[in-house]
Amino acid sequence: MREELIETVTYKDKDELVINHLSLILNVRSINLKCGSVWDFISGNKLFGGTTNGKILVYQAKGDYDDYYFKSVIKEILHPLGLNYIDDFIISGYLLPYGNSYSAVKPEMIEKCQGISTDWLVNQKTEGGCILKFRKTNNNSYPSYTIEELQKKLIKYFELTEPRKLDFNLQVIGYENGKIIFGMSKHYGRFLLSIEKLQRTLYK
Fold first, then answer.
1. For residues 85 and 108, is the Cβ–Cβ distance under 8 A?
2. Radius of gyration (Cα) for the chain, nearest Å?
3. Residue 24: which domain range?
4. Average pLDDT of the chain to the nearest whole number
5. Cα distance between residue 153 and residue 158, in whole Å
6. In a shared domain, residues 82 and 47
7. Backbone dihedral region for residue 86 (phi beyond 0: left; psi -120 to 50: alpha; all else: beta)
8. Domain ends where: 81, 108, 134?
9. Cα separation of 6 and 50, whole Å?
10. End of a domain among 134, 164, 188?
C-alpha cells in the first residue's frame, strides 16, 4: 500500500478506507464533474486534512465541534457548488453514544449515521469502525447491489412509508436499470421502486 502526504491531504493507494469518527465523505467523481479537479476543490476552499484514495474524499471529525463545522461546510461550500447530500456526499461515521466527545448526539441518530451506503459508496459497519469503498457500477452505469442489501433497504423503506405492507412478506426479486423489483404475498404481479427514491427517503 502506498501512502503519502500531498499538500496536507493524505493519499492512500487502497480500495478501502476506515473511519472511526463522524465524517464528511465526498464522491470524487462528483467533485471532478462540478468543481474541476479535486485539488482545485481542496485548495480553493481550504479544506485541508482529508484522506482520499482517488475515488472518495474523507474528512474525519477530530474535536467536539466538528459536526457543526461540517454543517457550515455543507451550507457555505458544498451546496453553492451544486453538491447534494446522498448524490455527492454524506455525513456518516462510527459513533459511540456514551463516554466520548459525541455523547451529545441524540441516541436515535447513532444508527442512522453509522453504515450509511449510497449509489456510489459501500459503507460497512464493523467493530473496528466503518469500512468505506467506492461502489462499482454495472454496464448500464447503475450501482450494483446484492439481493441482501436491497432486501434490507426495501424493508426499511416500507417501515418508514407504509408499514402495513410489511404484513405481505415483501421479497426482492431483482434489480434492473436502477429499480428494485419486488413481490408481495396476496398480490399479483411485480412491483418497482427506484433506488433513488428509496435512498432519499431513508436518508432525508
1. no
2. 18
3. 3-134
4. 76
5. 9
6. yes
7. left
8. 134
9. 10
10. 134
Which of 17, 203, 59 minimizes the C-alpha distance to 119?
Answer: 203
Strands (E), 20-170: 23-27, 51-52, 56-60, 89-92, 121-126, 129-134
Cell of residue 145, nine digits: 447491489
Whether residue 141 lies inside any domain: the answer is no
142-160: per-residue pLDDT in tens? 556 778 878 888 898 898 8
Residue 142, domain member (yes or no): no
Compute the distance between CA of residue 156 and CA of residue 149 in angstroms, rounded to an integer: 11
19-76: pLDDT as tens digits: 888 888 998 888 888 887 788 888 888 888 888 888 899 998 865 546 678 888 888 9
Residue 140 lies inside a defined structural domain of this protein: no
Number of domains in the chain: 2
